[in-house]
Amino acid sequence: MTSGSAIKRARERQEILDEIKARQHAARRKRRILVRSLSLGLLLAVVALVSWALITSKPKQDTATRVAPDFTLSDTAGVTHTLSAERGHPVLLYFSEGAGCQSCIVQQAQDEKEPGFAAAGITVWPIVMDKAADITQAAAAAGAKTPFLLDDGTVSREYGTLGTGMHADLPGHGFVLVDASGKQVWKGDYPSMWIDPKQLLTIVKGKLGL
Q: How many whole angstroms separate alpha carbon 107 and alpha carbon 144?
């Protein structure tokens, strides 16, 4: 082998090595770009998800007034309640998903501990679409003592609460305030499944001018 041939082959090997290194460098660069793109995409997806959650969990309030639709429902204690019979004092209707939603039952239990409702003469009626046995068990576990009114969906639909939560065929987490004259004066939906009882009391008293 002549020295010229050896030099030529060495140069060719070096060129091949340089090409391999260049390809490896390009591949690493593509991987870095891909990883950065995926990371950015994941970050944007997380931001979008958080934004969507914040938007959809934002409370919605309606202050349109109307004569509150009358209804008669039985509660878990077997007592029958008619809304029109409560004229003379305000009634706060609390619609929720019921037994399958622990925070909904906790809401009722905590509302019961707020003495301001009774002090203001406000009656709170929790309304669910559960079987009596199911909601009674859930209420006992959460420490809620007020009997729940049992709805077949008619009242929940009449008051526009169906599908405002996580299930299209159940009420969301909402309140409807009926004043002493029998008018609906406020409706609040809380997709986060919670509102502090003191805050709720403040809102309700404000709508009643108390």
A: 9
